[in-house]
Amino acid sequence: MRWAQLEPIRSRLADEQGTLFKQAERSIALTYPSPYSVGMSSLGFQTIYREIHRHPSTTAERAFLPDDPAAWRASGVPICSYETQRPLSDFDCIAFSVSYELELTGLLEMLDLAGLPLHASERDERHPLIVCGGPLTFSNPVPLAPFADVIVLGEGEELIHELCSALLLPRVRALEALAWRPGFVVPALSGTEAWPSVARADDSLLPARSQILTPHTELRSMFLIEPERGCSRGCNYCVMRRTTNGGMRTVPPENVLALIPPNAAKVGLVGAAVTDHPRIVDLVRTLVADGRQVGISSLRADRLCARPELVTLLAQSGAKTLTTAADGASERLRTALDRKTTAAQLIRVAELARGAGFRQLKLYLMVGLPGEEDRDLEELVTLGTEISKIVPLAFGLAPFVAKRNTPMDGAPFAPMAEIERRIAFMRARLRGRAEIRPTSARWAWVEYMLAQGGLEAGYAAEDAWRAGGNFAAWKRAFKERGVKPFAAQRPIDGRRNLPQLAAWPSVA
Question: First and final CA of the chain: distance in angstroms?
């Protein structure tokens, strides 16, 4: 049974390029609470892996949520690292990179499979130090507090070196050393009432980039690198808006190109606003001329209209689907969101996609926004009908989830039945003209409750996980724990009335 669990790990390891091995005084299990294919597509996860290895006293090995946690549990094999298949409980520290709220149960699953107490209050010097960081800390890390010895807030390239140095101290002294440092929270010592600002890494440490290439990911064998970090825009729903961490910081294309390995056939340009980079066309043009396939994580419609060569270059590099975002169903809602995308721009992007030979245009959209009405959906149907005459169209519909640290913090979640009605409305009105690909309203509601919750939301996640993790278990857990999200201060409407900005956790 041990062979059956470990052989897939060894097989994946054999297919990797760039894996790091090192002997050191202290060891960190860098852990992703989702399966390998997801975790190895995370640019931040790979960057921190490399940074740990740069510290003279510390080494890192990776661990991931098993593809089939139930089968792993039944095998009786302790969950282990990839590099040496060492049990996680043997490491000095287990550092989790948590991307979003629903990964909280993956964290609990991995701690349990490692044979470790879930609650920080139940662990002592016999146990690894449990650290949580990652993108979730930009919005609401509070539900992590019952389970984490240390929480790292924001960008981790510099903070990870402070953590590595602290690991050289005895456990109690390490916690004391970190408790009052900028960017760190030790819930047992510094409490959960006043949270520091999220950290910002020095620009000299940019860009983040892949360390390991592997064919076993969502982005198969693609080298990821960020030509920019952050965003200069002010979209009211977005955690990465310009106020979160200092706006957009760009990396010169020459620096990006110098860091891309010669054998990287596929390159992914990753960031919150890649097409806002002033020299993005030059960068993509060079990569395509070099024979590489290029993907961009955030295509903005207004930038594609202003820089139509980008669309042609992406098609030349082998892309078949062009993806951008509409976000709100109507001009009225997009104005309220401070999202400067117009219907005319989306139509123009469709024309550019057809001209470049793309097989499909995909538009991401939020449904269930505060103030959304059927007239907004009717406007979207009209737009979708017009676009579908130009190029095959697909809508990716996601229920709106208000996040902490945004102006829309506290905005209500639309009733699930109403969200499902609106999705059915769109599907019926656009049948035969556009694909409708919705995400689950139920799981979006669970995400919302965690995103808006405090300590009690973390305990509710534990209750739901112990009860099997189905939707009924989550509903019951939230009710029994008394989890109640912030109430909206004001509704959104066309006059841009927005909920007031909540001040907790604070932002830089």
Answer: 50
Dist. CA 424–CA 483, nearest whole Å: 30
Burial class of residue 137 in the structure, from the number of CB atoms within 10 Å of its CB (0-12 exposed, 13-18 middle, 19+ buried): buried
- Beta strand pairing call for 184-185 and 150-152: antiparallel
Go through the chain and tell me how many residues it has.
508
Quote the CA–CA distance of 405 and 106 in Å, as a whole number: 24
**Does the pLDDT of residue 477 top 70, yes or no?**
yes
pTM above 0.85, yes or no: yes
How far apart CA 440 and CA 68 sit, in angstroms, is 22
| C-alpha torsion angle, residues 300, 102, 94, 200 (rounded to 10) | 30
Among 425, 410, 338, smallest CA distance to 373 is for 425
Q: Report which DSSP code applies to 417.
A: H
| Residue spans of beta strands (DSSP E) within 139-272 | 150-152, 184-185, 222-225, 228-229, 249-250, 266-269
Can you tell me the distance from the alpha carbon of 407 to that of 337, in angstroms, rounded to the nearest whole number?
10
Burial of 320 (0-12, 13-18, 19+ CB in 10 A): exposed
Q: What is the mean pLDDT of the segment spanning 94-101? A: 97
* Coil/strand/helix, residue 63: strand
Residue 250 β-bridge partners = 228
User: For residue 397, what are the β-bridge partners?
Assistant: 365, 438
Distance of CA 295 to CAs 242, 321, 324, Å?
24, 11, 12
* DSSP letter (8 states) at residue 138: G
Q: Which residues of 34-72 are buried (b: 16+ CB within 10 A; e: fewer)?
A: bbbbbbbbbbbbbbbbbbbbebeebbbbbbbbbeebeeb
The band of 196, judged by pLDDT with boundaries at 50, 70 and 90, is confident
CA atoms within 13 A on the CB side of 124: 1
> Each residue of 238-294: pLDDT tens digit?
999 888 888 899 999 999 999 999 999 999 999 999 999 999 999 999 999 999 999
Q: How are beta strands 228-229 and 321-327 bridged, if at all?
A: unpaired
CA 274, CA 279: separation in Å to the nearest integer? 10
With b meaning 16 or more CB within 10 Å and e meaning fewer, what string describes 212-241?
A: bbbebbebeebbbbbbbbbbebebbbbbbb
